[in-house]
Specification:
Helix content: 40-55%
Strand order of the largest sheet: 3-2-1-4-5-6
CATH architecture of the largest domain: 2-Layer Sandwich
Largest sheet: 6 strands, mixed
CATH class of the largest domain: Alpha Beta
Strand content: 5-15%
CATH topology of the largest domain: Nucleotidyltransferase, domain 5
């Protein structure tokens, strides 16, 4: 519920922050472009509070993360992060600018029309980053496997001694080698990417440790290994 005197909308980008504030007592509109560092934004909001009373700060969730929200909250400024998919945008508005976005956030917050997301703690945000990075690695590995298997097939190599992508299959791949295929692609293409699952070998243990101390331990109690084989801590061979 909006109880502050001033509603402030921030359109946050990597290189600048567009600010638009509405003083509900005087009707004054304040617009600024602020340097995107958290300390500068907090300083601007603090100055605004001195001149226009308590401020409710609103900005959209996005790639810049939640560090700004945590910094503003730590400084004593009530802050909410809006869910982008839930914003009520004017149906006839086709031109989207930073200035309009900041003003829209200020107006929606003043009217209590913001659907806010939960601001994660630094530990929770780190866990999210880790899981997303793990999924990216897994997708890259699957793509590398597909490319490598098709490369081998084009040259008549088919593994028939059991399941692919096991220890035995890996030894078979190593025996083929560049001298047999005679292809630069073997050393610099998909074959070189087979090192991918080895690099994040500590990730299953890290996610498992996070899950035990996290807010939702049952939800994250069985994270998968980054290469897609079984639960964390299990063998892939």
């Amino acid at each position: 519920m909006f109880t502050e005197r001033t509603s402030l909308g921030l359109d946050v980008h990597a290189r600048s922050v567009r600010a638009a504030a509405i003083d509900t007592r005087t009707g004054e509109v304040i617009e600024r472009v602020v340097w995107p560092r958290t300390v500068d934004v907090v300083g601007f909001v603090t100055d605004l509070t001195r001149q226009h009373g308590p401020v409710l700060v609103t900005y959209e969730a996005g790639p810049t993360g939640y560090g700004l929200a945590r910094g503003l909250l730590a400084a004593g400024h009530r802050t909410q992060v809006a869910a982008p998919s839930k914003l009520l945008r004017p149906s006839g508005e086709r031109v989207k600018t930073d200035r309009r976005d900041a003003m829209l956030l200020a107006r929606l917050a003043r009217n209590d029309d913001i659907v806010a997301v939960t601001i994660p703690t630094p530990a929770q945000e780190s866990a999210r980053d880790l899981v997303r990075a793990r999924e990216d690695v897994r997708a890259a590995l699957m793509s590398a496997r597909h490319q490598l298997s098709k490369l081998l097939l084009r040259h008549g190599y088919v593994y028939l001694q059991g399941k692919a992508w096991t220890g035995g299959h890996d030894r078979w791949l190593r025996r083929i080698g560049t001298h047999e295929l005679g292809l630069t692609a073997w050393g610099h293409g998909p074959r070189s990417m087979m090192a991918t699952p080895r690099s994040p070998s500590s990730w299953p243990a890290a996610t498992g440790s996070m899950s035990r101390s996290w807010r939702w331990p049952r939800t994250a109690s069985t994270p998968r290994s980054p290469d897609g084989w079984g639960a964390c801590g299990g063998s892939r061979h």
